Amino acid sequence: MIELIDPISKQRLEESPEGLRNENGIVVYPLINGAYRVAASDNYTSNFGLEWNTFQKTQIDKFSGNTVSEERLFAQTNWQKNGLEGETILEVGSGAGRFSQIMLDHTKATLYSVDYSEAVEANYRNNGPHERFKLFQASIYELPFKQASFDRVICLGVLQHTPDFKASVKALVEMVKPGGELVIDFYPIRNVFTKVHGKYLLRPILKRVNHHRLMSLIRNNIDFLISIYTFNRRIGLGVFNRFVPICEIERTLPKGMTPEQLKEWIILDTFDMFSPEYDQPQRLSTVAKWVKEFGMADVDASWVTYHGKLEAPTVRGRKV
Ligand SMILES: C[S@@+](CC[C@H](N)C(=O)[O-])C[C@H]1O[C@@H](n2cnc3c(N)ncnc32)[C@H](O)[C@@H]1O
Q1: Which residues form the Methyltransferase type domain (predicted)?
Q2: pLDDT at 35
Q3: Contacts of 109 (CB under 8 A, 6+ apart)
Q4: How sure is the predictor about 31, in pLDDT bands with cuts at 50, 70 and 90?
Q5: Is residue 174 a contact partner of residue 145, using CB atoms and an 8 Å limit?
Q6: Is 123 helix (H, G, I), strand (E, B) or coil?
Q7: Residue 218 in contact with residue 271, Cβ under 8 Å?
Q8: How does strand 35-37 pair with strand 88-92?
Q9: CA 34 from chain center: how many Å?
Q10: Average pLDDT of the chain?
């Protein structure tokens, strides 16, 4: 069992059907729609609340019919399928729960999933209730758990969207118990051209557009954008697609989807590209250095390949 701690008062918390109670029996963080609400929703992740509640099922293997999340998770972690009995995993930034589903369905561990946004509602609808699953709306910087508690801590696709990447890595390392494991991935800085991209040119404007309006703008123009993207590739000018305001299709999306599914993923990923408050890629080597600095050994930083040619820059380590 993981000891629950109020990140503000540092008092011990107990679970109850109404919420998390402090030592005086008062519910300090209510349980609403399946998640303990340690944080309020009016924070910088409201775009993700909209994104994952709109595209609740899109990327969840058990609904999409593909196995891309399963392939990615096991390629990045090297965990044994159907293993980890009796262990605890902390997942930070769970979104709609694509990886929560895989950890619940393909390991025997107990999963504590955290997200700062209302995405926790989508995750609960996708994966709850479940006897090995606990869900918290909380920030990576104010986690309601005793430090050094978890056998494994995992954080996929999140760190670049936090305001202080290095402080976020530190917060994750602090949650791993001695001998336990950390697995993280993030947007990489590949070279000096990483930020010479339509995404980084337009984000300062588009991230300020009302999120519902931005979603409609993308939906209303997506067919046109896809046709430009496809045309550029057909005539050998795919290199210019980095300036077309649409997500990368070949290098990031799974194969074998129906045209409707593909369009849905493209709208999701394009919204995900422009709407976040923060988008701060990092070098693999820098993150590996931080992970060591915060007390991890056996650090491995590598590009993990999964689902054919998809790649994820991944850092793993063991807590000393
Ligand atoms: C791009 S989504 C990735 C979701 C999921 N891991 C996936 O791969 O589908 C990033 C998630 O990180 C969450 N997030 C951002 N800042 C956070 C913070 N400070 N604490 C916890 N979660 C955070 C967002 O709310 C969002 O759901």
Answers
A1: 90-184
A2: 98
A3: 84, 85, 86, 87, 88, 89, 103, 132, 151, 152
A4: very high
A5: no
A6: helix
A7: yes
A8: unpaired
A9: 19
A10: 97
In the block, tokens 């096991």 appear at 74
Chain centroid to CA 195: 21
Distance CA 95, CA 56 (A): 9
**Beta-strand relationship, 12-15 and 4-5:** antiparallel
Ligand 1 pocket at CB < 6 A: 45, 48, 52, 59, 92-95, 98-99, 114-117, 119, 139-140, 156-158, 161-162, 272
Return the domain boundaries, the chain: 4-188+281-319, 198-274
Pairing type for strands 12-15 and 19-21 reads antiparallel
Domain 4-188+281-319, second-level architecture: 3-Layer(aba) Sandwich (3.40)
Token pair 């393909």: residue:
106
Q: Which atom of ligand 1 is nearest to the CA of 117?
A: 25
